[in-house]
Inverse folding.
């Protein structure tokens, strides 16, 4: 309990320095350990729900994307909003570093997804501008929006909810999720802490199994 409390307090202090509020998903008690025994920001997933349901959203180019259609390869997913000038650019920068390390595997063997938690403001045009200005305009990286009801339905599946402060500030989600080819969560990350190499290492370990599932998925559809 004490390590978890210390982690939570540390995260709140960090987010507090950014001048924003956190709405991060609760993390399990058993994080992976780095060489010095500290949490490396990678946690075992505890959510057994289908995290890629048949919910239609729109990408940064205005194309309709069903989350269910992303099944067949792993998905790395986070939640951001484009008006954020504090935490979200940091989260996106971490994802960009992961994308750099993935190289040609991004899009061909894994999809990255960033879903806005401010759909009232973030339409495809805003997401495309954000992608271009935050090194996220890459093949295989989808920035998604939708109706508030659809976005909230996705958030509920991940154990999250949209929250606003009296001044209108949106509470940030600093947890990201590695979802398998079957739509089930494999890992959770404190994106503010985890090293991109740690995430890529987790992806590398599941890709052989994911590719087998993807081949089976393609055969079943043909």
């Amino acid at each position: 309990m004490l390590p978890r409390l210390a982690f939570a307090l540390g995260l709140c202090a960090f987010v507090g320095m950014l001048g924003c509020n956190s709405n991060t998903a609760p993390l399990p008690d058993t994080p992976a350990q780095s060489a010095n025994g500290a949490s490396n920001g990678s946690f075992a997933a505890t959510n057994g729900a289908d995290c890629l349901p048949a919910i239609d959203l729109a990408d940064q180019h205005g194309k309709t994307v069903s989350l269910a259609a992303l099944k067949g390869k792993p998905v790395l997913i986070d939640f951001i909003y484009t008006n954020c000038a504090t935490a979200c650019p940091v989260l996106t920068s971490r994802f960009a570093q992961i994308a750099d390390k993935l190289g040609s595997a991004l899009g061909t063997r894994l999809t990255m997804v960033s879903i806005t938690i401010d759909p009232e403001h973030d339409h495809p045009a805003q997401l495309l501008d954000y992608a271009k200005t935050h090194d996220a305009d890459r093949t295989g990286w989808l920035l998604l929006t939708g109706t508030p009801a659809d976005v909230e339905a996705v958030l509920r599946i991940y154990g999250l909810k949209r929250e606003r402060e009296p001044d209108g500030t949106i509470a940030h989600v600093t947890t990201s999720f590695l979802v398998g080819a079957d739509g089930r969560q494999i890992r959770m990350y404190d994106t503010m802490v985890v090293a991109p190499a740690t995430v890529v290492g987790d992806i590398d370990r599941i890709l052989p199994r994911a590719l087998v599932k993807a081949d089976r998925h393609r055969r079943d559809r043909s």
User: Anything to note?
Assistant: Residues 196-221 form the longest helix (26 residues). Confidence is low (pLDDT under 50) at residues 1-31, 33-37.
